[in-house]
Every structure is written in C-alpha cells, then in structure tokens.
Amino acid sequence: MSLTPSTVAYAAVNQMFAALGIVFDKAADHAKARNVDEAVYLNWRLAPDMFTMSRQVQIACDITTRGLARLAGSELPSFEDNETSFAALRERVAKAHAFIKALDRAKIDADLDGDALFFSRALVIEGNTEAVVSLRNALDDIDGSVAERVAAMFGPPGRATLAMLRRAGERARAREARA
After folding, report:
1. Cα separation, 51 vs 44, whole angstroms
2. Which residues contact 8 (CB under 8 A, 6 or more apart)?
3. DSSP letters of 33-82?
4. Contact, 162 vs 147, CB < 8 A?
5. Cα separation of 80 and 172, whole Å?
6. CA distances from 17 to 91, 92, 105, 175 (A)
C-alpha cells in the first residue's frame, strides 16, 4: 500500500477527532458528577498564556479543515466560534470531520510544485519576496538532522511525510535537470 499525503492526514485527523470525543465525554461526565458548570471546563487554561479549551478545539478544527481544503484546492470552510458546551464542541468536530471526508483525496495527493504555483501567480507573496524565495530555497536545501528531528516529533506519520517530501524534491530536481 502506498502512503499518500491524504492517507497520513486522514489517519492523524481521525485519531485527533476520536481523542477529542473521549476528552469531551470524560470532561462532561466529570462536570456532571461534581455538579460543575461545563463552562468552567470549557474556559480552563492549563497555563495562563494558553487559549481556553474551547478555543483550542476551534483552532484544531480550523487548521485541519483549512489546511486540507487548501491541498484539495477547495473553498476554505468557515465555522462560527460560538460553542458553549461539550455538545456544541462535539458538533463542531463532527462538521469539521464531515467536511474533510467530503474532500477529493486525489486532489490532496496531487503532486504540487511550489515553483509552478509561485510563477503562475497562483501563490501570491507580498512584501519582501526576495527574503521569501531565499527562505524557500534554504528550506529546500535542508536535509539530515533538522528535518529528521522535526519529522521524528510526529512519529511514523512524520517520517513518512518527510520521505514523501524528499521523493517529491528528487522528482522536481530530475525534471529541472531534463529541462
């Protein structure tokens, strides 16, 4: 079985959304058993500089749906940030999951060429474009420990994604060499 970007992304998203469901169940049960309003848990922060639990769930849903929508070339979804209960957060997660499942996996797995996007003006960069191009070239040249350490932080899906990115880079360099 070939490991594609959509396979890796969907596995991570499914695991994350399932885990959130378990967290919601445990937190709601705990709040009910202690006769504590759910809003207390939803507005808790593990540290003063963190977002509330509700906001973190909203951000997790937004990042996954918008990121995969961009890869699929789809319209970016927009969800209102107005959840005030675990049931409402569960509904938000369900909407995000349904949106992701409806995306065209073939489009997510398409081999995108960043240079082609940039030079066709499909990717717009404002400001200091020289710095952006320099950064992109520097990131293209990263090999070895930095990339491997970052990939290792995400376990097997991260290592698989790094391998896929390296193969894509090799294909792009081979195309450039032939041109």
Report:
1. 8
2. 157, 160, 161, 164
3. HTT--HHHHHT--SSTTSPPHHHHHHHHHHHHHHHHHHHHTPPPP-----
4. yes
5. 40
6. 11, 10, 19, 39
Tens digit of each residue's pLDDT (9 = 90 or more) over 95-130: 999 999 999 998 888 865 666 556 656 566 677 777
Joined together, the tokens standing for residue 127 give: 């400001």
Architecture of domain 5-107: Up-down Bundle (1.20)
User: pLDDT at position 158, please?
Assistant: 75
Residue given tokens 């191009």 in the structure block: 133
Does the pLDDT at position 40 exceed 90? yes
Provide the whole-model pTM.
0.63
How many other C-beta atoms can be found within 10 angstroms of the C-beta atom of residue 9?
Answer: 21
Burial class (CB in 10 A: 0-12, 13-18, 19+), 157: middle
Helix (H) and strand (E) counts in the chain: 9, 0
Tell me how long the chain is.
179
Residue 123 backbone phi and psi in degrees, to 5:
-115, 120
Q: Are the beta carbons of 88 and 58 closer than 8 angstroms?
A: no
Domain spans of the chain? Answer: 5-107, 110-178
